[in-house]
Amino acid sequence: MSDTIRRTGSCLCGGVQFSVSGAPLRIGLCHCKDCRKASGSVYSAYAIWPREAFESTGIVSTYGTRSFCPTCGGRVAFVGDDEVEVMIGSLDVAPTDDLVPEYELWISRRETWLHALPDTEQFEHDRPTTNTAELPAPRPLSDVVAGD
User: Fold this and answer.
1) What is the pTM of this model?
2) Which of 36, 91, 110, 132 can pair with 31 through a Cys bridge, CB separation 3.0 to 4.6 Å?
3) Are the C-beta atoms of 148 and 122 separated by less than 8 Å?
4) What confidence tens digit (pLDDT) does each residue in 18-29 have?
5) Integer Cα distance of 130 and 113 in angstroms
6) Omega cis (within 30) before 95
């Protein structure tokens, strides 16, 4: 019997269903304009899994790099060549206590009434795409100010 965690999820109507297996590569929040517009919320919470850990059924439509159910409009996943971005809210089981964000993107667009998540890396824009060994050190929360 395998100890690998398998999570399931779907769009709102259930027409598109998916599963991801194992631990995600990373978990984050994004406050960018695209995520705000696509979600209708002030940020998006997502987890990234290796492409081979993702399986799906159903028909999806796309807009740019985002896929969604053509029936209910529910966002499903962004499927790249190597990775899959899954919206945490599309998973079937909540709360997802073990899927804790490690970083926040586009913090200059974060609402002033939202606070930086404790113990997370804070990025002004996107994460660097370089090797993770070369990522900048996390910014201490005391350095994160509204005018920054």
Assistant:
1) 0.80
2) 110
3) no
4) 999 999 999 999
5) 32
6) yes
Place of tokens 């997802």: 96
10 Å Cβ neighbour count for 102?
15
User: Are 96 and 9 in contact, with CB atoms under 8 Å apart?
Assistant: no
Beta bridge partners of 56: 18
Q: Do 20 and 86 touch, CB atoms closer than 8 A? A: yes
The H-or-E segment that residue 37 falls in is helix 33-39
Number of residues written out for the chain: 148
Q: Which residues of 6-20 are buried (b: 16+ CB within 10 A; e: fewer)?
A: ebebbbeeebbbbbb
The first and second tokens of residue 28, run together, are 């984050």
